Amino acid sequence: MGRLPFIDDHARHIDASPEHVWPALLATVGKISPKLPGWLVMAWDLRHAERAGGWDATIAVGDTVPGFAAAEVKPPRLLTLRGRHRFSEYELRFELEQPPTGGTRLRAKTSAAFPGLRGRVYRALVIGSGGHRIAVRRLLASVAHRAERAD
Fold first, then answer.
1. φ, ψ for residue 11, nearest 5 deg
2. Is the pTM higher than 0.85?
3. Sign of dihedral through CA atoms 134, 139, 4, 76?
4. pLDDT per residue over 19-72, tens digit each?
5. Could you tell me if 148 and 14 are in contact, meaning their C-beta atoms sit under 8 angstroms apart?
6. Is the dihedral of CA 105, 126, 120, 43 positive or negative?
7. Rounded Cα gap, residues 82 and 57, in angstroms
């Protein structure tokens, strides 16, 4: 997978240390999506269809959740997920930064390519509709809730 075009960048301040945010991020991502039906996996030609790996306190490069594989893991600072299906090739990169004021700034950066006419239609449905933005913001809010509750 080469360098993909930038889509968006979302951030949230979390009142917890990166050491508390990291396991909250893994737990949240580990529950991103349920087991997908085989017909959907085949119809979409989804690269990573099942969960593999811990997704609790630790993960390794290659661990998967439906739609994504861990491509870069540097606890507690960086988690890069990549995936691919018939309509898109994508990357979701989480960066945890510790600002001087305390807590953690969790950023979610998305990059993706949408090849062909079907890809452009899919982009309009997912990105253009605002659905992706809503999903990423909910994911960040879920991580914050989990981390702040544990801290």
1. -140, 155
2. yes
3. positive
4. 999 999 999 999 876 678 889 889 989 888 888 888 877 899 999 999 999 999
5. yes
6. positive
7. 20
